[in-house]
Amino acid sequence: MIRRQVQVGSATRSDTLRARLELANARQAVLQGENSLRAAEFALGRQIGVGEPVRAMPPEDLAPRPLELTMEEILQLAEDVSPLVRVARASASSASAEVKSARSVYLPNLNLSSGYGWNNDTAAFSGGRTSWNLRLSMSYPIFNGFSREASVQRASEAERVARLQETDARLLAREQADGALQALLTAEAAIGIANEAAAVAEEDLRIVNERYRVGVATILDLVTSQVALQEAEANLVAARYDYAVARADLQAILGREL
Description:
Blueprint: H1 2-8, H2 13-47, H3 71-81, H4 83-103, E1 109-119, E2 129-139, H5 147-213, H6 219-254
Antiparallel strand pairs: 1-2
Helix pairs in contact: 3-5, 4-5, 5-6
């Protein structure tokens, strides 16, 4: 189109040179993109244990999908499946058992024993007398240098710390889930904005093309609109990528597909 306009005198030699420069830059960008794609395919192959480039299969639909769970359900699920919460809960249970064990020294010790006896006044295995015995004893330490009290106090403090750590782990799990959820919602909103920006840039380029065709706009206006459309489309791709990553992060926290 620019060559025809130069031939009929509606464009200048500078317009042709600018167009050729933009074409050369675009070709160079394509080469760099192909190299980056090749490197990414080899990196993906390495991740799955394949010594050759592997191309990722695009999803059937890149549009945002509604979540199956409410916000409170997501936070509760994150708390329930968190490994840190499970470890902290087990530690708190163990500390509680230690407290019960430490307090058991306040109970008296009961011993029950029984026995069977046989004796004979003569050197013979016949005859003789047999006897049974049953013995019950109880002991209770009245004072042991306050060691019982110290043991109970240490166990109680350990239990209190374990409970606090469990609570903190629960709060951390909810915080991480909420952060991932908000990142997902932000990425979803960004996709809508990027779609609108790409549509506006595409319409702007169409108008500038018509204006340049009739000689009203300059080559600089045309190139500027083309660059704006490319940036809008790149922003849309980046927004979709951020959404996919945010959704994957949330699924990793919850341990299930959404």
